[in-house]
Amino acid sequence: MMISTRGRYALRVMIDLAEHSNDGYIPMKEVAARQEISLKYLERILPVLVKNGFVEGIHGKGGGYRLSRIPEECTVGEILRLTEGDLAPVACLSCSAEPCMKESSCKTLSMWREFHRLTNEYFDGITVAELASGKAL
Q1: pTM recorded for the entire structure
Q2: DSSP 53-69
Q3: DSSP character at residue 106
Q4: pLDDT at 1 over 90
Q5: Mind listing the domains of the chain with CATH numbers?
């Protein structure tokens, strides 16, 4: 499994907003500049974060974005599943997968299921607050 640019940038945006949470609404151009991410790319990531209740924004003068949940309640797992999908390491474990005809005889399926469980458990155990503070493993 490889985490895409979209997933990595979404985490960077969340961390940046957490680090500047006392600044009110933050213009996306400031986040883009600090994180060295193109504004155009951020404009593709933010709607997903807004739609799913992680970030809220206001338009116009004094507008920008801020976290809509406290960083301690936002897990890496949630954010990565939003941007990456279900984090399944193999296609047959994907939420949208067709039933596999080899499931009953597959010698590796239990290994992949455990890897999937461990991956989700690991990412669900890390919060944006921990990443922002540098305390995550």
Answers
A1: 0.88
A2: TSEEEE-STT-EEEESS
A3: -
A4: no
A5: 5-85+127-133 (1.10.10.10)
Over the stretch 51-89, which tens digit does the pLDDT of each residue have? 999 999 998 888 899 999 999 999 999 999 999 988 888
Amino acid, single-letter form, for residue 44: R
φ, ψ (nearest 5 deg) of residue 29:
-65, -30
CA dihedral 37, 128, 72, 84 (to 10 degrees): 90
Do 25 and 62 meet the contact criterion of CB atoms below 8 Å apart? yes
Q: DSSP assignment of the chain, as one string?
A: ----HHHHHHHHHHHHHHHTGGG-SB-HHHHHHHHT--HHHHHHHHHHHHHTTSEEEE-STT-EEEESS-GGG-BHHHHHHHHH-S--SSGGGSTTPPPPTTGGG-SSHHHHHHHHHHHHHHHHT-BHHHHHHT---
> What span, in angstroms and rounded, lies between the C-alpha atoms of 54 and 60?
20
